[in-house]
Amino acid sequence: MNLKFSEEIRDRFPDLRVLSAKILGVNVERQSAELEHFKKKAIEETKKKYELEELKDVPTFRTYRDFFWEIGIDPTKTRPAAEALVRRVLQGKPLPTINTLVDAYNFASLRSEIPLAAFDYQSIKGEPLMRFASEGEEFSGIGMKKPAELNGGEIVVADSEKLIAIYPYRDSDETKITLDTNIVLLMICGVPGVEEEILNGAKRTAIDYVTRFCGGEVEE
């Protein structure tokens, strides 16, 4: 399953790159002792690598912040996902524990500096399409008590029935990863200015972590 782009998205953002990977036969659990041990190591490495006051000027994070400003999102309020994870670590806040698959790809995002998304593949209907939202479209994001009505113009990813993400920072509740997920679609969320080599590195890291802690095989 390949993500398609509308002509309007391609015209406005010709350098936008998004990678994906489909992993079959994953086993999602609530927690894993091995993953919890790995978390502690990753957190310590993150604390040594970054300084909180300088985080916004890390080149990768700066590129995502610039893109957020361009599409009308204030990155000081809605932070790019990878930066938000690093910031939580540096502030001494616990990282969210959702399930082994979500936690695994969150740590891939933490290490690669690239936002990642994951969807229950069997909840997606048809080929996903990135496009601009229409005014009044509704989106039910993870953790939202009621659907949000979009203003129009937001970058969204939709399947043939519904919106599955507001790109590149919020995923749909209807396609979220659960303990029943056995096929996952990973999305490596690029923005203009981030080279494909960096995105490929994030993809390899995400596949490594997901298969290490949840098993499964990548469909080439």
UniProtKB/TrEMBL annotation:
Record-linked SMART domains: B3_4
Pfam families (alphabetical): B3_4
Taxonomic superkingdom: Archaea
GO molecular function, one term: RNA binding
Keyword set includes Aminoacyl-tRNA synthetase: yes
Limits of the B3/B4 tRNA-binding domain: 63-215
Protein name (record): tRNA synthetase subunit beta
Organism annotation: candidate division MSBL1 archaeon SCGC-AAA261D19
